[in-house]
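Quick one:
INPUT:
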């Protein structure tokens, strides 16, 4: 019996109930956001020049493409969860950007000032959305729409607290590309939610196909192309520092790509695994973020990218299965391998580099290490608390099956 037949035999009221629950939650969340913008939001535009304004917008477009197309299509690797992957990516991005625009300035400045909503605030909102989408990767196919909505509303608050109060105000760490503040936080928040949620009972649809793997590679390509905009977006456009960050990021991505192609067949019986190439090729971009704007020389960027690509590939080929077997930690998209492990590598690199080079933009080694440690604690703790709260919205849907929540086409589940 398929799901549609089950609805006709008595399952329809429950699906309608879940639909109403989501609708009420969505309206409630958006109402709170509207009130927040109405009370606190304003728009004052102070672009230094037309060229600067254009460059900031170009950065924004690149980062937005990473969120909606890059993350969305990267997560289409699940054969029967394409609508959920792309559709819920759009939902999570939009909700989290709205909440982040309100939350980050409040944690940074309190209630003393109005919140200025401009292109730069939209860009920073997308940085927060990246953390939320990373977390989504750890639970993709396992949480229902209501749970994902709450996750997208709550996580930006914890992210903003950690980013503004802990990393910026208290420690003042150097992390221009979000290695610690975005990738590490998003990965371990999502893993904590997944750990609390538990391993799915029915994983029969946790499979890929040729079509889903190709679509996932589209996401990889978009993320790869626009990653330099993500890393350099917060740096004043057109400066030597911005050009340094862009160059180092591209070099790190190139190195991690080559290393992934090298290591994948060595660990996987002489063949290339799509999951490795879809993900670990991007690990250089994760690891380089905290030091991308520093004069680490081309060899430094290439070394960081190489180590990140190799570490991420080992994670996909060896570590992920071990975590599932020994700890029952189910990581749908392998966020521990792409974002978790490389972010720890990048965090350690950000503590080592200041002892080697002299650069005003470099962080203090002790503070960098403290930033890594505190972010891990905040991410895991807040993720676990959120996970327990989300369990109150559990349902009995099968993992990674669009037909539970979407109107699907007639050819769904037929010869795909």
């Amino acid at each position: 019996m398929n799901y549609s037949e089950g609805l006709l035999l008595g399952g329809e009221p429950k699906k309608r109930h879940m639909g109403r629950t989501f609708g009420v939650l969505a309206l409630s969340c958006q109402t709170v956001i509207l009130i927040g913008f109405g009370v606190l939001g304003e728009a004052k535009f102070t672009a230094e020049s037309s060229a600067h304004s254009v460059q900031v917008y170009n950065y924004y477009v690149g980062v937005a493409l990473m969120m909606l197309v890059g993350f969305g299509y990267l997560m289409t690797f699940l054969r029967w969860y394409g609508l959920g992957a792309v559709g819920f990516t759009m939902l999570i991005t939009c909700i989290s950007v709205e909440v982040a625009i309100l939350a980050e300035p409040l944690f940074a400045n309190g209630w003393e000032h109005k919140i200025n909503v401009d292109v730069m605030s939209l860009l920073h909102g997308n940085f927060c959305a990246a953390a939320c989408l990373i977390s989504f990767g750890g639970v993709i196919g396992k949480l229902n729409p209501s749970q994902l909505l709450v996750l997208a509303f709550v996580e930006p608050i914890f992210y903003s607290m950690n980013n503004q109060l802990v990393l910026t105000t208290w420690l003042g760490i150097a992390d221009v590309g979000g290695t610690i503040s975005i990738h590490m936080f998003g990965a371990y928040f999502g893993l904590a939610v997944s750990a609390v949620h538990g391993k799915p009972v029915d994983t029969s649809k946790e499979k890929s196909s040729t079509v889903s793997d190709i679509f996932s590679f589209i996401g990889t390509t978009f993320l790869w192309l626009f990653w330099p905009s993500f890393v350099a977006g917060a740096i004043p456009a057109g400066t030597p520092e911005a050009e340094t960050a862009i160059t180092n990021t591209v070099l790190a991505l190139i190195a991690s790509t080559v290393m992934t192609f090298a290591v994948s067949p060595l660990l996987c019986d002489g063949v290339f695994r799509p999951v490795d190439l879809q993900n670990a090729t991007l690990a250089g971009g994760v690891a380089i973020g905290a030091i991308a704007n520093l004069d680490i020389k081309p060899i430094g960027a290439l070394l960081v990218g190489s180590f990140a690509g190799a570490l991420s590939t080992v994670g996909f080929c060896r570590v992920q299965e071990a975590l599932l077997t020994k700890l029952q930690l189910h990581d749908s998209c392998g966020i521990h391998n792409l974002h978790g492990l490389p972010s720890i590598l990048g965090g350690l690199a950000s503590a080592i580099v200041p002892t080697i080079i002299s650069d005003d933009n470099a962080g203090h080694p002790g503070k960098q290490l403290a930033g890594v440690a505190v972010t891990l604690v905040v991410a895991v703790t807040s993720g676990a608390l959120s996970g327990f709260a989300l369990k109150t919205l559990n349902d009995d849907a099968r993992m990674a099956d669009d037909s539970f929540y979407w109107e699907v086409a007639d050819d769904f589940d037929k010869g795909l």
